[in-house]
Design goal:
FAD/NAD(P)-binding domain; 662 residues; binds flavin-adenine dinucleotide; Rossmann fold; alpha/beta
Amino acid sequence: MDQDKQTQEAGEQRLGVYVCHCGINIARTVDVAKVAAMASELPGVVVAKTYEYMCSDPGQNLIKADIKEHGLTGVVVAACSPRMHEPTFRAAVAEVGMNPYLFEMANIREQCSWIHEDRDDATAKATDLVRAAVARASRLVTLAEREIEVTPEALVIGGGIAGIQASLDIAEAGYKVHLVEREPSIGGHMAQLDKTFPTLDCSACILTPKMVDVARHPNIDLLAYSEIEEITGYVGNFHVKVRRKATSVDRHLCTSCGDCVEKCPSKVPSEFNEGAGTRKSIYTPFPQAVPSEPVIDRETCLYFTQNGKCGVCAKICTVNAIDYSLEDEFVEFDVGTVVVATGYDEFDPNLKPELGYAAYENVITGLEMERLCSASGPTEGAIVVGGKEPKDVVFIQCVGSRDETVGNPYCSRVCCMYTAKQAHLIREKLPKTNITIFYMDIRAFGKGFEEFYDRVRKESVIYRRGSVSEIYKQGDRLVVRGEDTLIGEPMEIEADLVVLATGLTPRDETSDIVKLLKLSRSSDGFLMEAHPKLRPVDTAVEGVFLAGCCQGPKDIPDAVAQAKGAASSAIGPMARGTVMAEALTAVIDEDLCSGCRICVSVCPYGALSYDEEDDVSKVNEALCKGCGTCAAACPSGTITMSHFTSDQLLAQVVALIGGSDG
Ligand SMILES: Cc1cc2nc3c(=O)[nH]c(=O)nc-3n(C[C@H](O)[C@H](O)[C@H](O)COP(=O)(O)OP(=O)(O)OC[C@H]3O[C@@H](n4cnc5c(N)ncnc54)[C@H](O)[C@@H]3O)c2cc1C
């Protein structure tokens, strides 16, 4: 109480320090009472306490009561990572009138108790961390958050099932959605699937009504055959520029009669059928495509490649919808929030040449098998390869998944089940065919998955635990060579058809999306969520959310669930109408700035610009995320970060190394 009085009289800092036990997470390794006792002796500290769970309501109430009783000017909580609970405590202190930027956190859990075993050493380190936090807290200043208005429209990038679901949910909530899909139709990979595990619903039958809903919804502006050129801005106010690729078909005139497609003389391999079968140069990717108007593929169209020689589609079109002179159009609009739903690529089996994908036409991928099974596929659903029904079919699981040799240590989560599904579909069509599945282990974790796997095993499908080293040809048959890993013996088995259960990989163009939106990727290359457990649909960029396989491999129910989560997160700021922007930004001392523009070139958010008139760099506070890149790069030390000033950081470092911060 003496110290309390002294600081009050001197008009100095009046800090409260709160050391959390976090159950036994911290208290088992750190002597929290000792840390609090040390803290109570530090200059400016008027109260220091410990509590079981500081983040709990009683814990927060303790802090709030002390702020009022002791007239605290700052609060330090020694607990977990600020990423976890800084917002909780900032909100708590703000509730009783303290500026939230006068709150400081010392991480004595992740950075101390969880990584040390010796109690004395851990307590000493926790003590140092708290001392450093108090030193910084005593130099914190009040900062004001800014309120930003939110444009009540959203952008969804990618029209697979995840993007479709997110768009429908946002549109149903009453907000306008711009859905940008780069292919001529929405639908994504789900449109290519035949049946879907484990319920065996026809994929097209459950997807098509949703695609039609998208096309009809008054709140959805569908921009198919389009790509994002540029996104600038920040949460609430993103400005988007989209390139609508020239389709050479006037969509306002076209009736989607299909005559032009039928008469087009140019045939090319069909991407939708994974290269099996052909499409025309003027085409819709599949019969239920949305939008239904065809597009001309200028790379292969004879009119474009042979100086206007063809022109059949224009001649046949009764409504004069073919217009070879159409150019790419640019559309610009503002949105408040963004959902990224750009999906996945199938693993490229050529990266495992020993499996013979490039060499043998009867070695195919999972998606090719889907098209082979499908009634709308190249064989109209007949399982035939090289004109014959296969007698022996072998599936090889985990191709490109759980495989360090190709840099993909992760599980693709769908291959075990889609293999079981495809085995079942073959069994239905070819009851006498031998079906063998080589697997590492079976992952049947979802609802109804184990039951489906059991059902398929009972259909005389042989599951063999094995690792395949090579596929080669003997006569007109394939030989799958490897090891039976249950009995530890080499094995060879003949096949007429080998299906590689290819895994899911990040899209090749993920880096473009990363650059456009300043997102991060996790070590597997997929887009990174803000927190793997607690913020699985958020990204580090406020107002940008993830849905579906762009964030990691997942099946349709999980993609839909995540899309619904992303949609509700995207709706939140639009429904509130405003968002609060972090007060932490870069601050430029214009008297010292030499106008070298290094900061402008390094800023990842485009928040800095060069002002020619004043010959200095300037900060757009709305864009600035307070990352500090510019401050670190500035050669003249002109840029400081509010809330992380040199004075504050130096005081922290000096206190940490036990010196005097004089
Ligand atoms: C062989 C195989 C069989 C499967 N079978 C099943 C099954 O039976 N049941 C099941 O639940 N799951 C199954 N899956 C998984 C299923 O395919 C996915 O869960 C689902 O397709 C994920 O949807 P998505 O919208 O996240 O991604 P995608 O389907 O990949 O859709 C992404 C969309 O975004 C578009 N896009 C990409 N980049 C851009 C860009 N930059 N700009 C604009 N648009 C862009 C793409 O063109 C595409 O339309 C299977 C997967 C495979 C490989």
